[in-house]
Amino acid sequence: MKETRLIHVQGKPLGGGALPVIITPLVGKTQAEILDEVTAIVPKKPDLLEWRIDFFEAIGDIPAVIATALAIRKASGGVPVLLTRRNASEGGAPIAIAEAQVVAMYAAACQAKCIELIDYELSNAPADLQTLREVSSANSINMIMSYHNFQLTPDAATLDSKFVAAERLGADIAKVAVMPQDAQDVLALLAATDRARRMISLPLISMSMGGVGSLSRIMGWVYGSAATFAVGKSSSAPGQIAIEDLRSVLATVRKAVIGQ
Hints:
By secondary structure, the protein is of the alpha/beta class. The protein has eight helices and eleven strands.
């Protein structure tokens, strides 16, 4: 089995090198709601917290964003934080600010070094992708470049092209998430992930969403996906599994696949 590349933060592998890394979302609308989520989630020992800032009411207030990120970090007990504004066109919550303000918010968070990773979609303007690649690199913040399709699973060539584009544009991590219409689509996503780890040199995150797609959240690491998403308190996408259940199943799968 070809090696699944690990995600590193500040020179150390997330999860101590165990696969897959477990990421849990924070989707509160206010700082108080978010910190309540952190308090509930941290005892469940996720490897990474994803702050879905598209749900945050004060997304346009940069000082509030930075203050909340710092509060998350203080409450997280050292769990790294991924900052994600998911575009509404790719399944995110609608927001009231323009893309230029989104880019400025991301840049300010990178410069404040109040988060460890950012996620920005490949579908965004090339100039904005380049700006955030430059500012994140300058501040040692890892950048995920991502593609999400909540309607269907594209053909093999399209899936391959998304992984390749992330590497070409300088991402640290490539992410692809798609919606299956049937079980065959889940296999198509896993096959694309396996091809990607042979074609490009980046760590990968991939998943097939929805009920049948949850199989990819359990088995994706075998095919090259370094991370999976689990529900800590609230879900951010269809098919996410409760962290307690996912951890138990992953332990069984790891024992069967690699003997530990």
